[in-house]
Every structure is written in structure tokens, then in C-alpha cells.
Amino acid sequence: MPSNFVAKGADGYEATMGRWSKRLAAPFLDFSRVPSRGSVLDAGCGTGSLTLALAAHPDLTAIEAMDFEEDFVAALRKRTTDPRINAQKGDVCALPYGDGEFDGVYSLLVLHFVSDPYQAVREMRRVLRPGGTAAATVWAYGGLPSWRLFWDAILALEPKVADKDPRTKRPMTGEGELRATFESAGFADVADSVLTIHMDYANFDDYWYPMVYGQGTFGSFFDGLPQARRDQLRDAVRAAYLGDDSDGPRGFATVALAVRGTA
Q1: Using only C-alpha atoms, what is the Rg of the chain?
Q2: Measuring CA to CA, how many Å separate 56 from each of 34, 91, 107, 128?
Q3: Which helix (H) or strand (E) holds 196?
Q4: Does 243 fall in a domain?
Q5: What is the CATH number of the domain that holds 85?
Q6: Where is the Methyltransferase type domain (predicted)?
Q7: How does pLDDT run across 123-159, given as a tens digit for each residue?
């Protein structure tokens, strides 16, 4: 089943989301209880932020990484020479592994983009050994204030692009949804938590260009506008970013939801 994530290559992903995936990986793994040894799976690895964080655990013997986007898988392969890591293309809703293969299965910022998150969680449980732990995290609905600033400014001038607004409510992003899904899939000892990171930008350009030309379809729409309209939109977002201050660093507290359970 295809993903509903609009991918525009590994570089676009890194600029828009990969750097924040890397920042979220550490608190997520602290919550997830990575096994002291054995084999683990990064289900929906993207360009490898979580995979490489898992590789920092020296006693893990095998680290499988899988993603629906071949460009992301190729980018991960270029980022590591760790012999424990095997990256391949695959579908989180139909994991290409046998029953009970892993001691841990992890999903970072994936379940709100897959075609059937309930099936994906069932698959995560299927490939776990008895007693193994699975964990997942997604951005909380309304938990991305940097995106809210951008889209509120854009939509005030261009309401017709509302269909391109990525803040639409997605499955698993509401309070309690992840926990209920893990419980319905048969996990035991289910626990959930809220994780917070900071999205820090060096200046307005560091904020603006990834938001316009990273993932999603807004960039092609923006490029099709007359130059005067593009300048107007950019000025509106810039004013929202700067507020009453000069250009420079800005930080946005950003919230993700997490859950773990035992097979």
C-alpha cells in the first residue's frame, strides 16, 4: 500500500524534516527501551535518523531499516558503513519479515502517513519476538507551531491553497489514539508519553526555503505565481517570523506523541 507522504527526494526531506527527526530520535529511544542486545527494526526509516541513533547501541547485533521511498533508502546507505545495518525498500503495512524476527521494532514519524496505520501496528507486533518491545511516535495534532506560523500567514492571503496545508488532522495524531491502536493490536504493558523538542532556525532564510521547497506540493504552486505575489507571500511570512525583532535565530517548541508496548 502506498504512503500518502509527498516525497521530493532525500535532500528535500533532510531540509524540511530530517534534521528534526534526528533531534527527536534521542528522547524517543530513551522512552522506547531499546534492548541491550539482539536485532531491531526501524520501520519507515526515512533517511536514517533513527537507524543511526540505534547504531549507537554497540551490543545490537542487527539493525534492519526499511522505507517505502527508494531515494530515502539510498541516502541511508550512503550515510553509514556499519555492517549491522541493512536498508531496503518495503511497506510498513506489509513488513517483508517473518514472524518473531526482532527484539525491538520502532517507528519514528511514520504512522500518520501510512495508508493503514492499524495494519502497520499489527505488522510491528507480528515481527516481534515474545517479550519484545515496539514503539512509535508521531507529531501531535497542533504540535508544530513553526508550521502554524507559516500556513496562517500564507492562507490569510491565498485561502485557495488550503488543500495544500499539511496541518490537516491525520490518524494517530490525537490524544490517546496511538495507545488505543497498540492495545487493540494485542500489545501488553502499553505506555504513552509526550515528547518535546525545539525546532531551531538560524534565520528567516533557514526557515523559509525548506518550508516552501521541501516536502509537499506548495513549492510548485508558489513558483507558478507572479513575482509580485510571491514577494507578497514571502513578506507576510517574514513579518510573522520576525515579529518586532531583527532577523536571527528562532526556536519553536514542538510536540510529538509516543507509545510503547510489549509483545
Answers
A1: 19
A2: 11, 25, 17, 21
A3: strand 188-201
A4: no
A5: 3.40.50.150
A6: 41-134
A7: 999 999 999 999 999 999 999 999 999 999 999 999 9
Decide if 203 is inside a domain.
no
Instruction: State the cell numbers at 136.
Output: 512509535
Buried b / exposed e over 40-76, threshold 16 CB at 10 Å, is bbbbbbbbbbbbbbbbebeebeebbbbbbbebbbebb
All cell numbers assigned to 39: 536485532
**Does residue 216 fall inside a structural domain?**
no
Contact call for residues 105 and 124 (beta carbons, < 8 A): yes
The pTM of this model reads: 0.90
Pairing of strands 188-201, 250-262: antiparallel
Number of domains the chain contains: 1
Whether 103 is covered by a domain: the verdict is yes
Q: CA-CA distance, 148 to 100, in Å (whole number)?
A: 41
The length of the chain, given as a count of residues: 263
